[in-house]
Amino acid sequence: MFLISHRFSTVRMADKILVIEAGEVVEEGNHEELLQAGGKYAKLFYLQAAGYQ
Fold this sequence. Notes:
42% helix; two-stranded antiparallel ribbon; globular; 2 strands
């Protein structure tokens, strides 16, 4: 299955997440791996999470 979403609550359960920027895959991993990497995915995740607090 292939899923495109801007909601991290949907994406975080995926086995593999690809972060695409300007047509290029810039990050790849599961939710925990991408948070630990501290890259674009983590930045956007925490930004979205702050909106719910």
